[in-house]
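Input.
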Amino acid sequence: MNRRFFIKSGSVALASFGVMATAPSFLKRAVASALDSAGGRKKTLIAIFQRGAVDGLNVVVPYGESNYYDLRPNIAIPKPNGGAEAAINLDGFFGLHPSLAGFKPLWDSKRLAIVHASGSPDNTRSHFDAQDYMESATPGVKSTADGWLNRFLQSKADPQKSLFRAVSMTQQMPRAMQGKAPTIAMANLSDFNIRAGQSSANVQGGFEAMYDQAVNDTLRGTGKETFEAINYLKQVNPAQYKVENGATYPQTPFGNSLRQIAQLIKAGVGLEIAFTDVGGWDTHVNEGNQQGQLSNLLRQFSNAIAALYTDLGQRMDDVVILTMSEFGRTVKENGNRGTDHGHANAMFIVGNSVRGGKVYGDWPGLKNDQLYEGRDLALTTDFRDVFSEIAQKHLGSTNLKSIFPGYSSSKFRGFLG
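Output.
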């Protein structure tokens, strides 16, 4: 086990802190840096990647398009009719999949915005390449060294050097967060105590010695603070965390990830970027409509995000949740009652600062001559326009060119004030 692996994959976190006098040094710095350099409260972005290419047309349903029903005779979502298995009306043209009922209160309170027909301008239908392009934010360029979230961290100084400024609740460090800026990937907060809690004292001595000897290592000191975090975690016991405001997280890995992100936000450890992902969206066969494979995934997905919003309460004034997927799926269903790899998709943005209750973007239509390459929803909003608006208006970035090299955003959609 080496230093970098230990820092990035060790499940280290803090929750529900008590007396500040006994808190580790990184926590004291985080509390001291609760305000950003402009004097406002620090903001947090929670980025969620739906890996596998979700079918955006059955998620945000264009029920006002007759071609939608013509091309999907078996898997289309019924038009809104007040029933529990029909689309949930949004604006007279678009509707939510019925399993996204957890999103309707957010929509009604204008805390949820949607950007439809969005995604990557690159035409690849490879999951691997499309995810790489979206996370690096350089479509068509495979040689980009770092991810867009890491470039944001590089572009904005963090004088307090918070140990938990950027955290991914995933097994591996995602492409979006790889780069020069320090980041941490955690599999699960409670797993760390199970795997290493009893032996942490023996491990601690060896690693602290290694760090102390690394005089020229830019991460010197981080190791000691990592072990401070481990020891403090054992004291506060994350299993004792209590959700607030009646929130109920689904008992799924995704629900657990969002619950733990809420723990870190409430702990006040300086979290600025949080990331997690959820898979299973590659619905080539038996996708289903109001019932079935996609429906089950969407129910867990929306209920987890709704629980996170509820749990954080007023803290959502300073938090934005962004969802993304590498590409959409074909407009026409295939012979297996599923959908194949497509192009444009739908993104969700949630937060108290979001100008919600609206589907943003230019709708291209689903007639044959309006489809991309004669088969897919056409792209009208580059995903970098969405990322850029959040980076600038929410996170306070003043140097978008360094975050999105070779691209100048020209279509801020106005979903943030």
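The first helix runs from residue 3 to 9.
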